[in-house]
Amino acid sequence: MLTIRKEQMEVFQQVSLRNFENNMIRHLQDFSPNLSKALGEDGVRDVVRLGIKQAEQYGFTNYGPVQFYIEMMFMLGSYFDTDCQLPWAARILNDPEIENQDERADCLFDKAMDYVEKVGGPNRRYAVKSLTRASQENFKSLCKLKGDLETDLLFRLKLNHPQKCQYAGDKALLKLIQQGRKLSQEYSISGSSGIICFTCFMFMLGHGFADDPLYPWCGDTLKDDSISASEKRVERLFSKGIAYLTKALANSIDEGR
Predict the structure, then answer these.
(1) Distance between CA 112 and CA 93 in Å, rounded?
(2) 8 A C-beta contact, residue 237 and residue 197
(3) How far apart (Å, rounded) are the C-alpha atoms in residues 95 and 93?
(4) CA–CA separation, 170 vs 90, rounded Å?
(5) Taken in order 126, 128, 133, 139, is the CA torsion positive or negative?
(6) Angle at Cα 161 formed by Cα 160 and Cα 163, nearest 5°?
(7) What is the pLDDT of residues 26-59, one digit of tens each?
(8) Distance from C-alpha of 134 to C-alpha of 249, rounded to nearest angstrom
(9) CA nearest to 244, candidates 232, 22, 212, 157
């Protein structure tokens, strides 16, 4: 009689997990070729591993639901499940009345497609306009307030991507600004530049951008000890962000042709 020891079972599980990771890396190279290329295979694997871990928290263990969860990370940021701009995601993922993981994934898919249609627009027209506006910003003008910080930032976000702001609602956007303020304090950045820049990055890349393996350059810049002044780190982050958005815009235009 064949007996499988615990150690053998663990090896089988590790091999199966590695195969899934490899399959996901190949899939993501087709699903999001530009971001996958920028990250490299090791970077994509890091995101996949994080996705597997996070998906399991919501009962996603089957191939299809886990794959879709990771696709959502690439679309909306690795921490989309807790992003105040996307309350519908957390609501579906934590709904106790949806017990079946495939049904939960289907519900999440339906809402995500509604979001993409209304926020991205036909042929991603609204998203491209948002990228265009953001890529034309400069650091000094961005950090120059024209009144109350929250009111001014709310106005700027709506000017950049009105459809996204309408979908999220003012309550979520004000909460995002508060998160930008908190992150600025965590990095000991005085003045309004950190709050403004961080809020805009959260708006464009997701609220967890500073720790997101999809955008490792964000965390690397903010933790760069060679840049002694924290305000200079914010300015460096902004410059890298503009370069990233400019490239993303060029890729979006090419894909639309």
Answers:
(1) 12
(2) yes
(3) 6
(4) 18
(5) positive
(6) 155
(7) 999 999 999 999 999 999 999 999 999 999 999 9
(8) 10
(9) 212
Please work out, in degrees rounded to the nearest 5, the angle formed at the alpha carbon of residue 54 by the alpha carbons of 48 and 60: 95
Contacts 24+ apart (CB under 8 A), 158-165: 159/133, 160/130, 160/133, 160/134, 160/203, 161/119, 161/126, 161/127, 161/129, 161/130, 161/133, 161/203, 163/118, 163/119, 163/121, 163/126, 164/85, 164/119, 164/126, 164/130, 164/203
The total number of residues shown for the chain amounts to 257
Closest by alpha carbon to 207, among 104, 81, 122? 81
Which pLDDT does position 141 carry in this prediction? 86
Q: Which two tokens stand for residue 121?
A: 């627009």
* Nearest alpha-carbon partner for 52 in 67, 37, 36: 67
Q: How far apart are CA 40 and CA 17, in angstroms?
A: 19
169-203 pLDDT, tens per residue?
999 999 999 999 999 999 988 889 999 999 999 99
For residue 192, give the amino acid letter.
S
Two structure tokens written together for 225: 């000890």
Alpha-helix runs per DSSP H in 58-169: 63-76, 87-93, 101-115, 125-135, 139-142, 149-160, 162-168
